Amino acid sequence: MGRARQNNQMLLAFAAGERGEAPGTGGEGTERPMTKPDTESPANTERLMEEVCERENLWQALKRVRRNQGSPGVDGMTVEEIGGYLKEHWPAIRAKLLTGAYKPQPVKRVEIPKPGGGMRKLGIPTVLDRFIQQAVMQTLQRRWDPTFSEHSHGFRPGRSAHGAVATAQEYLRQGHRWVVDIDLEKFFDRVNHDVLMSRVARRVSDKRMLRLLRAFLNAGVMENGLVSPTDEGTPQGGPLSPLLSNLLLDDLDRELQRRGLRFVRYADDCNIYVRSERAGHRVMESITRFLDSRLRLRVNQEKSAVARPWDRKFLGFSFYLHSEPKRRIAPQALGRFKERVRELTRRTRGDGLAQVVEELSSYLLGWRGYFGFCQTPRVLYNLDMWIRRRLRAAIWKQWPPGHTRFAELRKRGVSIQWAALVAGSSRGPWHLSRSPAVRAAFPTAYFDSLGLPHLAAR
């Protein structure tokens, strides 16, 4: 009931803001229909900011920000506090948006480890700026997304990484079995603001929107208490960044389509599929020149390559040839998976088995939801066995040597002979975890009863 009452108050605040009233002083008013988007031309985009401030658009943005959660920005405001803040301040914020006077705050710089090593820089906007970015993104995405290439799969409604991988697989099936794997060097940090804004201006005539987008790009970064200006890049961490990256790289998509090339792009990951190595090197050279001269983006020569697709990874997957190309999990992704499972099941963590399984299950369900798309069920089956062995080893390590281990095995129905043989063994936990005695004490059904999910279909 509390959340429903807060939601109704928020709708009243937005409705009051549309009429310039203080929140809570009037009724909901009549909701205006959302403008049907013009998908390409800047004509009819002079009132985009009014569209951003439509009550339904704002409400959808607020729900998304709440659902995504996330850390506070430089002002310390949490997602839980944004509702009350908007209820009090929305009319003034709306007035600034409609007059082009809104000024975003700097983003908070944080670094997170990259899966392949190194650190990735993220910029966390304030919750208020995330809310406004989300409302702007929704408005622009409705107009722009229908014009983007069918070969672009990242951060778009109704599209996914699985669709991108399946498209790449189809190119291989058609005989295009060389890949031009293009890695853009620090793409989100190196986007040229002038080049990006020129692409926005082709589609947007509302000067307030252009000023707001430029303001978000130039908001600056706070790191160690100091604010530094930003003259390039679109910081990862805000809702607008993926859409703006798709807009900029739409030029690349159009160029590849103009040349009749088979390609698939997911954000800044772009793979082009050709029939020969020679053609691949020719495409790599010409596209590198195009990106540098037209978009001022640099190709990372060390990470890019012309190669066989089964020697490369794409969105965590790779391929192998059987009678036809099949999807497999890339070795790097398997390595990261095992590293994470080892961390969750390490024998020295001291947590009870139930807690370990609970944390592990959460990770496995998410991993299976993505990598279950592979076509190598034997790999998943082997991983299931390896995980159960890790858990048996962890249990064995927690039991004191000698009589305790013998008694625990007997309690679980293991014969005297087997229990005595294993309990008295000098072998380590990993070796003994696959012994018949320990497997009999902790069969697959035991871990099923704890709620441990299977990666392989049963």
Label this structure with key terms.
four-stranded antiparallel beta sheet; 51% helix; 458 residues; four-stranded mixed beta sheet
Describe this structure in words.
Helix content is 51%, strand content 11%. It is an alpha+beta fold and 458 residues long. A hairpin with a 3-residue loop joins strand 9 and strand 10. Helix 1 runs parallel beside helix 4, helix 3 packs across helix 5 and helix 8 crosses helix 10. The radius of gyration is 27 Å and the shape is globular. The two termini are 42 Å apart.
Short description:
By secondary structure, the protein is of the alpha+beta class. It has 19 helices and 10 strands. It starts with a helix and ends in a 9-residue tail after the last helix.
List low-pLDDT spans: 19-39
Biggest sheet statistics: 4 strands, mixed
**Mean residue pLDDT:** 87
In percent, how much strand structure appears in the residues?
A: 5-15%
Helicity, as a percent range: 40-55%
Biggest sheet strand line-up = 2-1-4-5
Could you say which structural class the secondary elements and strand pairing correspond to? Answer: alpha+beta
Terminus-to-terminus distance:
42 Å
Based on CA inertia axes, which overall geometry fits? globular
Q: What is the gyration radius calculated from CA atoms?
A: 27 Å
Order of helices and strands: HHHHEEHHEHHHEEHEEHEEEHHHHHHHH
Q: Based on DSSP secondary structure assignment, what is the total number of beta strands?
A: 10
Number of helices: 19
